[in-house]
Amino acid sequence: MRFSFSIVALVLEVITIVLFGIFVEYDYRDTPGTLYPFFQDVHVMIFVGFGFLMTFLKKYGFSSVGINMLIAAFGLQWGTLMQGFWHSKGGKIHVGVKSIINADFSTATALISFGAVLGKTSPAQMLIMTILEVTIFACNEHLVTEILQATDVGASMTIHAFGAYFGLAVTLVLYRPGLKNKHENEESTYDSDMFAMIGTLFLWLFWPSFNSAIASAPSNQIKAIVNTYYSLAACTVVTFALSSLVGQRGKFSMVLIQNATLAGGVAVGTCADLSIHPFGAMCIGGIAGIISVLGFHFLTPILASKLNIQDTCGVHNLHGLPGILGGIAGIIVTAIKEEKRQDVLFTPGMQAAALGSTIGIALVGGALTGGVLKLPFLGQTSDQNCFDDSVYWEVPEKENPHEIHSNKYEEHSGLDATM
Amino acid sequence: MRFSFSIVALVLEVITIVLFGIFVEYDYRDTPGTLYPFFQDVHVMIFVGFGFLMTFLKKYGFSSVGINMLIAAFGLQWGTLMQGFWHSKGGKIHVGVKSIINADFSTATALISFGAVLGKTSPAQMLIMTILEVTIFACNEHLVTEILQATDVGASMTIHAFGAYFGLAVTLVLYRPGLKNKHENEESTYDSDMFAMIGTLFLWLFWPSFNSAIASAPSNQIKAIVNTYYSLAACTVVTFALSSLVGQRGKFSMVLIQNATLAGGVAVGTCADLSIHPFGAMCIGGIAGIISVLGFHFLTPILASKLNIQDTCGVHNLHGLPGILGGIAGIIVTAIKEEKRQDVLFTPGMQAAALGSTIGIALVGGALTGGVLKLPFLGQTSDQNCFDDSVYWEVPEKENPHEIHSNKYEEHSGLDATM
Amino acid sequence: MRFSFSIVALVLEVITIVLFGIFVEYDYRDTPGTLYPFFQDVHVMIFVGFGFLMTFLKKYGFSSVGINMLIAAFGLQWGTLMQGFWHSKGGKIHVGVKSIINADFSTATALISFGAVLGKTSPAQMLIMTILEVTIFACNEHLVTEILQATDVGASMTIHAFGAYFGLAVTLVLYRPGLKNKHENEESTYDSDMFAMIGTLFLWLFWPSFNSAIASAPSNQIKAIVNTYYSLAACTVVTFALSSLVGQRGKFSMVLIQNATLAGGVAVGTCADLSIHPFGAMCIGGIAGIISVLGFHFLTPILASKLNIQDTCGVHNLHGLPGILGGIAGIIVTAIKEEKRQDVLFTPGMQAAALGSTIGIALVGGALTGGVLKLPFLGQTSDQNCFDDSVYWEVPEKENPHEIHSNKYEEHSGLDATM
C-alpha cells in the first residue's frame, strides 16, 4: 500500500493546489457575519459527526474517524473547485463563508458513500471515489437547483439520497461473496458504541444548522431551524418506541438509536425552509423514524442476501429512504402550496424530476465509480482483512491499563502474557 | 417492557404532534441573528453535556446517553407547549430561536432529576416524569418570573434547585432498601470516567451561553458571559485544591472534578447579568466549589444512610446546594444594590419568595411524581438489575479487539471463550 | 502531595481574586455581537482540544484532561491580569469578549509546554509553570505586537513557537536520565488513541476561529478563516501521504494523524489575515505537514537521545517547527508585499526580530522556570511513577463490564479475580 496511496494522495493534492493557484480568489466582499457559526456547526458534523458515527465497529475506529478526515479534507478542496466552476465569474472562483459551507456539504456525499463501503475498501480507493463523487455531485446539484430550479435547502435529495444511492451502487459493484456470512469483525463493542454516540449527537444537534445554512433569507433560515429541530425531536421519540417494539424482548438497539434518530433531519431537508408548519415537520420526522427503523430491521438483511448490496453502516436507511421521503415531501408541499424564492415558483413536476435525476445519476455514477475502484493498483484488501484497522494502521495492543498485577500473575502461572 | 414503553412513547408523541398542529405557529418576525449560536451551545449542553456527564457508571453508558436523549427530545416538545401556554397570543404559541432555547432549558430540569434516579428507573417511568416535571416547572417559572417578578437569568433556582429537589423527592419516594449496601455496578471504570469528562467539559465551556442566552439586552448578556466565565474558573481551581485536601492520600477524585467544577456555573446563575463585578462572581464560584466538594464528601453518604435519599449522580451537590447558594446570592445582591429590568425593581423579599416557592413546589411535585412512577405498568426493575444497561438494551460483548491470539489460546486451554 | 498542592492552589486563587477585586472592571461598552461564537470555538479548543489531544497515553488520561483543565482555568484568570496590565486605562482592566478570547489564548502557551513535560511533573509544578509562563508570554506578546509592531494574528510565534520552546527548555532542565529507555507506560491503547482523536478534531475544526478571532476587521477575519481552512485541508492530505510513506509497511501512524494534521493551522497563523491567497495558504499547510511528519519521525528521537530533551507529546513538531515556519512565512510575505494595519506597515525586519525575540525569551524563560520547578516542595515524582494517573488520582479498576460470567468462572478455577 505504501507507494500507491502516497503517490495518489500527493499527486491529487499537488494538482489541487495548482488549480487553486489558477482559479481561486477571496470573495473580498464577504464577512463572517452571522453565517460563520452555521459553517462551524456544519464543519463539526462533517468531521466529528460522520467520523465518530462510523466508529461503532470494534476494530475499525482508527479508519472510521481517520479516513473520514482524509476524505473530507481532500473533498472540501475538490468540492470548492467543482462547485466553483459552475459559479465562476471572469474565470475566477471567489471563496467566502458560503463557499466553505458548500465545500463541506459536497464532502458529505462522499462520507455517506464511505459508510456503505466501510471496512471493505482501501484509503487510495476512497480518494478516487471522493474525486469522482464530488465531481458528479456538483453537476447534479447544478442540474437540480439551477436548471430544474427545484428547492432542496437541506439537500435531502442532492446530498443524502445522492450519497446513499451512489454508495450502494459502488458496494454492489464491489460485491464480496466472501462476506455473505457475517464477518467476525463486523460488530461493535460497548466502548465503540459509546464513541459512535458522540457522532450521533453532534449530527443530531447541528442538523438545524445544516438545513438552514444556505437558506436564501433569515426568515427562511428561522423556519428551517425550527422545522428541523422539531422533526428530529419527533423522530427520536418514535425511533425509541419502535426500537423497543421490534427489538428482542423489547430492548433498544444501539444501531437504531445511533442512526434512525437522525432520519428526521434528512427527511425534512427538502422542505425545511418552506411553510410546512412545525406540525408538518414533526409528521415528516415521525414517518422518517418509522421508515428508518423498519429499513434497518427488515430491508438491510434482504438487500445483503438477495440483491448483493452490502451496506456496512445502513446508509440506505439513514440517508437513502429518508432522502427519498424528503424528496416526496417536497413534491407534495409544492403541489399543495405555492412556494416561491426570488421569482422562482417551485413546481411538483420539477421536484419530481430533481428526485428522479438525482437517484438515476447517483446509481449510474456509483456503478461507474465502483468499476474504477476495481483497478488493481488501488489495493483492494482480502475478505479476511476487512473491518480491520491493522491492515492500514499501526495499532497498539489493546490492553487494560490497571492490570499489571494480574498480568504478572499470569506470567507466573504460565498464561499468555498478551492477554 | 416492550409494550408498556412503546405505547406510552407513541401515545405521548401523537398527542404532542396534535397539540402542535392546533396551537403552534412560527414566530414570523424572528431571525437567527446573534442569538442562534447561544441556542446551539445550550443544545450541546443538554444532549452531550448532560448525556455524557452521566456515563460514568461502568455498565450504564447506553442508558445515560440514550435515555438522556429520549428525555430531552420529548421534553423539548412538551416544554414548548407548556411554556408557550403562558405566553400565547390569540390562542397561538409562536416559536422562534428564544422559544427553542427555553424548550431546551425546560428539559434540563428533567435531566437533573434523571441524575438523581439514574440506574433505578425504567424508560417509561422517565417519560412520565418528564411530562409531569416539565409541566410543573413551567408553572413555577411563570410564578417566579411573572408573578413574583424575581430575577433568575441563569436559572439557579428555577432549573437547578428545582430539578435537584424534584429529583431528590422522586428518589426518596422510590427508596430501595435493597440498595443500602453499595451495588456492585455502582462504580466507574477508567474509560467510563473519560467519557464522563466529555460531558463535564461541554457543560463547563458553554455555561456562559446558558447563563446569558435569555438576558434582556446585549449589555446584560456580556455581564452574564464574563461573570460565568470567571466564576467557573475560580470554582475549578478551588475544587482541585479541596479534592486533594479531602481525598485519600491527597489524591484527586474524578467524581469531584467531573461535577464540583461545574458548581460555579450553577451558583452564579441568578445574579449572572447583575453588576456583581467579576470579583463577586469569582467569590460565588469559589464558595460553590467548596460547598459542592463538601457535599459530595460528607453529605451524600449521610443523605443515603440516614434520610433514605439515594442520589446516584449527587445532583444535590451539583445543582441543589449551588442552586440555593445562587438564590441566596440573588437575595443579597438585590438587597445591597438597586437592580432593574424594564421598570421592574428586583427586591430581596421577592427573590426569597422565589427561592422558597421553587424548592417547595419541587419537593411536593417530586413526591407526587414519585408516587405516580410506582404504577406497576411502568416497569420498575428489580434491585439486582439496577445500574445495568442490559435490562433495556441489546449490549454487545465487551471484548478487547486485538486479543484474538489470547482468545484462541484460551479456547485451546479450555478456558471460557467469553472472556 | 496533599498539602503542597492544595496550599499552592488556594493561595494563588485567593491572590488572583483579590487582584481582580482591585483591578478588573466590565467593559460596559462591549456586546457579544458576532465575536462571541469565535470565543466559544477557541474555548472548546483550549479545554476539549488540548485536553483530549493529550489523552493518548494509556494510563494518563485523567491527568491529561484534568490537569489541562486546571492549568487553563487558573491560566485564564492570571492571563486576564497580565495581558490587562499592558492595556489598562486609569488603573483598571476592562474585560469583554475580546479579553476572554485573549485570556484563553494566554493559557494555550502553558498547555503547549504541558505537552512537553506531560507525565513527568506534579500538578503543583504545573500551577507554578503556568503563572510564570503566562507572565512571560504577556510581556513577549507586548514586545512583539506593540513595540516591534509585528503581525502575528494567529500567534504562530507568540503562542505556538513560544509555548513549544518554553516547554522544551523546561523539560531539558528537568531531564530524567532514568527515562532514557522508553517507560513502559509511555504508549497508547486503542481507546486512548480514540479519545485523543476527539482533541485533534476539535482543534482542527475550530482553528479557523483561533486564527481569525482577534483580526482587526471583518475583511481580514474572512481571509484568516479561508486561509486556515485550506491550509489545514492541504496539510491533512500531505500528512496522510507522508505517514504512509515513512510508516512500517506503509501503515498510517496515529501519532502523526493526531498531531501533524494540525501543523497547517499553526504555520499559517502569522500570515492568516494577509492576502497570501488560498493557494499560498495551502503551500504553507503542505510544507507544515511535511516538516511535522519528518520532525516526529526523525528529529524527536534524536532530541531525546542526543540533546536530553524529552518531549512527551512532540510539541516541537506540532508547535515548534511549524511556529517557526509561520514566522518565516511572515518575514517572506511582508518582504514581498506591502501589508498595513491602521497605518502600521509590517516590515520583514521587525517580523524577524519578533521571531528571534520570541524564541530567545521562551528558551531563557523556560530554563529559569525549569529551575524553579526543581524546588523540592513542589513534589517531583520518581521516574518509576511517571506517566501514571494513580500517583495523583483515585483510579478505578479497569474492568470489562460484561464479563461477570467469566469473572465468576475464574473465581471457581482459582484465578485472580482482579483480572
UniProtKB/TrEMBL annotation, chains A, B, C:
Organism: Otus sunia (Oriental scops-owl)
Transmembrane parts of this sequence: 7-26, 38-57, 69-88, 100-119, 157-175, 195-217, 229-246, 279-299, 319-336
GO cellular component, one term: plasma membrane
Name assigned to this protein: Ammonium transporter Rh type A
Compartments it resides in: Membrane
Keyword terms of this UniProt record: Ammonia transport, Glycoprotein, Membrane, Transmembrane, Transmembrane helix, Transport
Quaternary structure, from the entry: Homodimer. Heterotrimer; a RHCE monomer interacts with a RHAG homodimer. Component of the ankyrin-1 complex in the erythrocyte, composed of ANK1, RHCE, RHAG, SLC4A1, EPB42, GYPA, GYPB and AQP1. Interacts with GYPB (via the N-terminal); this interaction bridges the (RHAG)2(RHCE) heterotrimer with the SLC4A1 Band 3 I dimer complexed with GYPA.
Entry similarity comment: Belongs to the ammonium transporter (TC 2.A.49) family. Rh subfamily.
InterPro entries, per database record: Ammonium/urea_transptr, NH4_transpt_AmtB-like_dom, RhesusRHD
Catalytic activity: methylamine(out) = methylamine(in); NH4(+)(in) = NH4(+)(out); CO2(out) = CO2(in)
Residue ranges of every copy of the Ammonium transporter AmtB-like domain listed in the record: 34-377
